[in-house]
Amino acid sequence: MTHPFLDLAPLGAGRFAAIEDRVARLLGTGQDVVVMQGEALLPLEGAIRAAAGPGTVALNVVTGPYGQTFGDWLRDCGATVHDLAVPFHTAVSAGQVREALAAHPETDFVSLVHAEAATGNTNPVGEIGEVVRAHGALFYLDAVASVGAEPVLPDAWGVDLCVIGAQKAMGGPAGVSAVSVSERAWARMAANPGAPRRSYLSLLDWKERWIDGGRKALLHAPAQLEMLALEACVERIEAEGPETVMARHAAAAAATRAGALALGGLEPYVYEAKDAAPVATTLRTPPPDVDASALVTRALESDPALPLAAGGGALAGEMIRVNHYGRDATRGAVHGCLAALGAALAEKGLKADPEAARRAADRAWDGQGGAVLSGD
């Protein structure tokens, strides 16, 4: 008997190109969009290795762990890297980027993460893009976590390399991603002797063998399941309406933040609400009384499906992350996380008021327009 996940017909070039076109429309871009056959780290690394080399002077903005990774890749390519690091509980400002570029006028490459789901902050890319464009540097953006949850507009913001993934706010699988590429980014890659070629990392292979050939012949057999899932993600966002999807994420973030404050025992890790990402709310546990990892483990015993996680690495002991993205950008998911955290705090002998948290979350959700959004 046939199986819907196993007995799939090959995905042809026409369908592949049509999916790329739908992704381009989602991003509002006229740039080339290449759908990559792997998790978003594939185009994130591929774009840096294609566009940077020994002559590159990069300003690498670090607002979380991914910014640190990009700096490592850039240095590995031989680039001169100036890190602009800000505390993970805040966002970088356009003014800080302007000052850094003034201090290093030779900068010709700027790398930035839009939303850092790992730390719960988001950066004002539109304002930063104006600064980068005025300076004339190539602008590289990781929008993997933000796409679907907040506006991602490569053309309007002057982004030359914009990488997205399906696994967060788009509600899809991790095994497919995409990158939009400006004409000057293609030119930079073509002039870079160190840019990967004949490699799975190579964007130039896609340019020369796919785009320049009129998108008639694929480089290799595409992963049908992931491609069809990406198409379904975009289709679902189109059907619900991008603005509605983004409003739902904003409501979930506002509700989680307000509910946590009313709950007691926890406080937002990102100090200012304006700097908080709509995909994930990070919370700080009171040191040294409560270990975040242990608290999350206890909370998940009530419902293992709750979108809760402890912080990564050194933050595991003090940070809780509520991942309210994709299918979990709902009032019900927020309520469930707050209730489970409240119960776990109470077991530790700490004062917690889950009912007050629920009321505060509902007020915040409705204040964001959540009363008319789906997702209970």
Task: Tell me what you see in this structure.
This protein has 376 residues and is of the alpha/beta class. It has two domains: 13-239, Type I PLP-dependent aspartate aminotransferase-like (Major domain) (Aspartate Aminotransferase, domain 2, 3-Layer(aba) Sandwich), CATH 3.40.640.10; 242-372, Aspartate Aminotransferase, domain 1 (Alpha-Beta Complex), CATH 3.90.1150.10. Helices cover 43% and strands 14% of the residues. The strands form three sheets. A seven-stranded mixed beta sheet has the order 1-9-8-7-4-2-3, sandwiched between helices. The model has no long low-confidence stretch (mean pLDDT 95).
Helix and strand arrangement:
Layout: H1 13-27, E1 32-36, H2 41-51, E2 57-62, H3 65-76, E3 80-85, H4 94-103, E4 109-113, E5 115-116, E6 121-122, H5 125-135, E7 138-142, H6 154-157, E8 161-165, E9 177-181, H7 183-190, H8 203-211, H9 224-240, H10 242-263, E10 267-268, E11 281-284, H11 292-302, E12 308-310, E13 319-322, H12 331-347, H13 354-367
Parallel strand pairs: 2-3, 2-4, 4-7, 7-8
Antiparallel strand pairs: 1-9, 5-6, 8-9, 10-11, 11-13, 12-13
